[in-house]
Design goal:
There is one protein chain. The protein has 184 residues and is an alpha+beta fold. The protein has two domains: 78 residues, 2-Layer Sandwich (Alpha-Beta Plaits), CATH 3.30.70; 89 residues, Alpha-Beta Plaits, CATH 3.30.70.260. Helices cover 30% and strands 37% of the residues. The protein is built from five helices and eight strands; from the N terminus they run E-H-E-E-H-E-E-H-E-E-H-E-H. A hairpin with a 2-residue loop joins strand 2 and strand 3. Helix 3 packs antiparallel against helix 4. The radius of gyration is 20 Å and the shape is globular. 18% of the residues are buried.
């Protein structure tokens, strides 16, 4: 079976996921993973989909374009490599890095550059900027995998220095602790 990544982008409205799921079901496709969010007024959805042998990626793309055209959505379909090892290295630990502070250009660039310098992989990022200097209105949450061989003390120190230079408050917690503390 072929595996693809399907991305759907456009102005948000009810029913987008329903249309995509209906087309995939009608084509005997299997949705393996979905990540969908609304960014201000825009819908962004990514789907990992397994296609049956009789459905080609280009065929599926045409059907989805036709079905979603009336909604003004943009569709992209691309094959993905066969199942293999993910980037997450063995022995890595999941952490959550949270920053809060005044909105300004370069926040994501600064924090993500420090993260990358230590070979830490960002597995999920949520950034909400409502503008202004009210720290509670501007939050970034990075879910990361920190390899076991990372000098965690040096990483935390540099991350805190970067945050301070950007006027950000920063918190770094193991994901299990983060989930326990933030459970509703």
């Amino acid at each position: 079976m072929n595996k693809i990544i399907l991305t759907v982008l456009g102005h948000d409205r009810p029913g987008i996921v329903a249309v995509v799921a209906k087309v995939l079901f009608e084509q005997s496709c299997n949705i393996e993973n979905v990540s969908q969010t609304i960014l201000q007024t825009e819908f962004s959805g990514s789907f990992i989909v397994t296609l049956p042998p009789e459905v080609l990626p280009d065929q599926l793309h045409e059907i989805l374009m036709e079905e979603l055209a009336l909604m003004g959505m943009h569709v992209h379909v691309a094959p993905i490599a066969a199942a293999g090892e993910t980037f997450q290295s063995k022995g890595s630990e999941p952490f959550v890095i949270t920053t809060k502070g005044p909105d300004r250009k370069g926040l994501v660039a600064g924090i993500s550059a420090t993260i990358a310098r230590y070979g830490v992989n960002i597995t999920n990022l949520k950034a909400v900027f409502k503008g202004g200097d009210e720290p509670g209105n501007n939050i970034m949450i990075y879910e990361v995998d920190i390899p076991a061989n990372t000098d965690q003390k040096a990483f935390y120190y540099e991350l805190r220095e970067t945050a301070e230079s950007l006027a950000l408050n920063i918190s770094i917690q193991h994901r299990n602790i983060f989930k326990t503390i933030n459970r509703i």
